[in-house]
Amino acid sequence: MINGQKASKILPLSWREWLNDIQKLKLNKLLTFTMNKSINFLIVLTFLNHSICAAYAIKKEAGDSKPIKVYILSGQSNMVGAGKVDGGSSRWGSEFIDPVVSVYEGLYDSKENYDELKPIKTIKLEEFGGTNPSPYPGGGAQVTRGFVQVKKTGMYEFRPGYGGSMQNVMEVDGKEVHRKEVGKEIVRTGIKLEGGKKIPFKITYLTNDANGLGWIVRLDVPGTLSALVNYEGKYPYLKNDKSQWVARDDVYYKGVVTATGSRWLGVGSGKIGPELGFGHMVGNYDEDPVLILKTSQGNRSLGWDFLPPGRKQYEYGGKIYAGYKQSPESWAKGTEPKPIGWYAGKQYDDCFSAAHEVLNNFDEQFPHWKGRGYEIEGFAWWQGDKDRYNAGHASRYEENLVHLIKILREEFKAPQAKFVIATLGQTAKNSAEGNEKLILDAQLAVDGDAGKYPEFKGNVSTVYTHPLSQGGASNSHYEGNAQTYMDIGRAMGESMVKLLEGK
Q1: Beta bridge mates, 420
Q2: pTM score, two decimals?
Q3: Directed axis angle between helix 397-411 and helix 434-445, to 10°?
Q4: Are 323 and 313 in contact (CB under 8 A)?
Q5: How far is CA 109 from CA 142, 207, 244, in A?
Q6: Are strands 187-188 and 175-179 parallel, antiparallel or unpaired?
Q7: Which among 12, 69, 177, 225 counts the fewest CB atoms within 10 Å?
Q8: How far apart are CA 141 and CA 42, in angstroms?
Q9: Helix residue spans in 205-248 (DSSP H)
Q10: What are the distances in angstroms from CA 363 to CA 221, 282, 372, 375, 500?
Q11: Is the pLDDT of residue 20 over 90?
């Protein structure tokens, strides 16, 4: 039998036909064998895929149950943050010339070209911008047209509308500078304008909510974050591929006392502190989610306002300086102190009790991490400006700083937490004098590598910030230079990571 046929039936075939038939038989067997093997392979592949998925699910579940890494940042005004994001936004108004609003029949329709349609009414806007703009008439799709003229040449950003009226498309000189569609994110593009030149603008409102409110922002002011990112190529990770500020989804910011907020870490409007650079450094290092908990207050000294619990009163220069909970700050030796409405350590109590309030209600504060708990990984401290104006406080800065490191670890039950300190940016090692030198020397002395405090080896680090400062001083908030705040924050974060790595 060959292929199910008797030999007598195939003998008359030519040798070529006979050979072809043999080849077909072999091919059929080969195909059958291959299909069987393929089916077995697919079965194994499916099993492996299910195993991998199950392993990933187990790993993810385990990862999702691991505690959140917490870093507590504190200090005075420069920790609060004064780095300028842009040149400052201002309500628009006088820049706009001859604004009119046209109303078209029906609701807004993206398919319509309103420049070619005839409006059912057109109204001149006597007041455009400011705090009390002329009301829009409503009754259909609304489009505002006119001219804009700035005084100074530069890069500008337009922010039309407020609340619901932000849902619009704005064009300046034919270029789209703002788009906010219903349910979507805002997309804005800066535009270069020539001072004194009048150019057309148009705002097409996508809903019935329309008004003349708006803000205009200068983007290219030197030292601002927008100028650094947009025009100098620094910190590109702060923006997405659409050139919009982007927030991380693995680092969360919680600010209490001052610089308050509760959001994923990113750039908002206004000002930044060192937490932005710091958060990116530790966020890149930690596999687990990170919480940046900042509790700070400006114009506060370690020797008085932030004096940690346990510090005793002392004598200096013929005065008695207050210990923790005592008042006033100092009094003449041999006299009775007359308390005032503040006490030594009041800011310490306020700041760190606020931090405890957050951590004690962790699930409520961070429902996206409910049930995971937290671990305090480290502390970051940037302060010292106010102490340099008081010789008594400067003389005890090192002792107070050593005690602060120890008491914070004890109070927050985090004995292994790392500690990073930043020096004052204007204070140079080779030229510091008087109180500034005392404070700088104290901050450098507690660095674990300095050797003065063996117990701080590998767990306390000081960042010498003078080379990172772009000018100014701590009392002028470094002139609001965003690069100073970003680079010092990054350096503090890098220092924290090195401690965590055991380097």
Answers
A1: 380, 461
A2: 0.85
A3: 40
A4: yes
A5: 11, 10, 26
A6: antiparallel
A7: 12
A8: 59
A9: 225-231
A10: 41, 22, 8, 14, 26
A11: no
The encoded tokens of residue 73 equal 């940042």
Nearest to 296 by CA among 68, 82, 470: 82
Mean pLDDT computed over 130-143 = 96
Q: What pLDDT score was predicted for residue 25?
A: 53
- The pLDDT tens digits for 391-416 are 999 999 999 999 999 999 999 999 99
Question: By three-state DSSP, how is residue 379 classified?
Answer: strand
Six-digit token string for 282: 């530790």
Helix (H) or strand (E) holding 122: strand 121-124
How many beta carbons lie within 10 A of that of residue 123, not counting itself? Answer: 17
Contact between 496 and 278 under an 8 Å Cβ cutoff? The reply is yes
* Greatest C-alpha distance within the chain: 135
Phi and psi torsions of 379, nearest 5°: -120, 150
User: What are 383's two structure tokens?
Assistant: 């302060």
> Do 400 and 381 touch, CB atoms closer than 8 A?
no
Q: What is the DSSP letter of 245?
A: B
Residue type, 33: F
Query: What's the Cα-to-Cα distance from 185 to each of 117, 179, 210, rounded to whole Å?
Result: 29, 8, 18
In terms of Cβ atoms closer than 10 Å to its own Cβ (0-12, 13-18, 19+), residue 297 is: buried
Token duo for residue 149: 């003229």
List Cβ neighbours of 423 (8 Å cut-off, separation of 6 or more).
384, 440, 443, 444, 462, 463, 464, 465, 466
Quote the CA–CA distance of 276 and 429 in Å, as a whole number.
Answer: 27
- Enumerate the H helices of 161-312 as residue ranges: 225-231, 275-285
* Beta strand segments in 127-260, E: 141-148, 154-160, 168-172, 175-179, 187-188, 191-193, 199-205, 214-218, 251-256
Per the listing, tokens 């219903």 go with: 182
Cα–Cα dist 380/147, whole Å: 50
- Give helix then strand counts, H and E, for the chain: 10, 23
Q: Length of the chain in residues, anyone?
A: 503
